[in-house]
Amino acid sequence: MADAAGRIATLAEEVLGTPLPIRVRAWDQSETGPPGAPTLVIRRRRALRRLLWRPGELGLARGWVAGDLDVEGDLYEALDRLSGLLWERGPVGPPRSRLRTGLQALRDPALRTAARRLIALAGPGLPPTPPREEVRTSFGPVHSLRRDRKAISHHYDVGNDFYELVLGPSMVYSCAYWDGPDSTLEEAQRAKLDLVCRKLALKPGQRLLDVGCGWGSMVLHAAREYGVSAVGVTLSEEQAAYARKRVADQGLTDQVEIRVQDYREVPDGPYDAISSIGMAEHVGAVRYAEYTAILHGLLRPGGRLLNHQIARRPQPDEEAYHVDEFIDRYVFPDGELAPVGRTVTQLEAAGFEVRDVEAIREHYALTLRRWVANLERSWARGMRLTSPGRARVWRLYMAASALSFERNRIGVNQILAVRTPEGGASGLPLRARDWR
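Now predict its structure.
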């Protein structure tokens, strides 16, 4: 099987209709492609079988997670070049997979010779078993309590030590708020937590509910710096155990309570303020009206909600939206993104008055690049703390997400909403963004 790289490049160019923008190195150590470009390393030819059996992003993802595929050189540059090659993007609507379209076209009689060459290069046999990191089983109806717990566990219960390595001392797993690229990640995360507290106008003695509290950073900051009594809820047992230890270590057990609890099960409103930071992406379209109604009901009249949520671009046909297969199978099972306009509409339909929307997508790109750098700097330890496949999942999804934020394919927004009383007094200052 001499010069497998050259044969792969030739077939790829036939399928995709354009020269490859990166180098290729195959399992036989043959190499081809533009000098100086990042290199796609195909360690095993079973990676080709994965693509033949599952054309598109899922076949590629399985090869990456299993270690059949790798990249040498700048990962961001490689992903950027491959994205332009593999996806056809219009001004609106979802991207179209050139790879899937090209491989399906191989069924045409005129291209059967190319198909036979590709099959011969891939080798005989059934499709390889998916990596063990892939979610394969559904547990009940989508966004039921049981299924949501399983989905959250898949993403968050992978080891607190691993998340410490990636997130750093702040232990905040959401977009930071940067003064500039020279700030530290910890400074930017503290600035984000403080921004949320100021938007909520927190004061000593108030009650705060943090929905999806993670490892407790928001409730700890709010209790320590603003004197509130805070409740944090999460579905992750590992997060809750970690957060409770932090609360005890900081002497805040009289002010902060951490619960393993779904937002649908919180019984003890009303609260003066609610923060939901990076949690609403897990709610799902079928539950979003329920989510907004429940949070509205948990707030006292005049109380504020800060909803910090990733958003996707709108599509001409919203019914055709589907979650990226790699993200759904390996990262956030059942996670869904919505356009920011839909989120605002649903908050208002629940009775909220939306008072401010701040778009901060560039901040998330900076955050993700710092997380990737943390993981890459301690790569061997990261693999030991979780698994080699899981570490590869996190590296790929965070790097690809950083590019998506930079290219305006997705965004992130902080939406401030008020449960305005019937009399109409919102309690907000006359001048916007003077949060107190």
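The mean pLDDT is 90.
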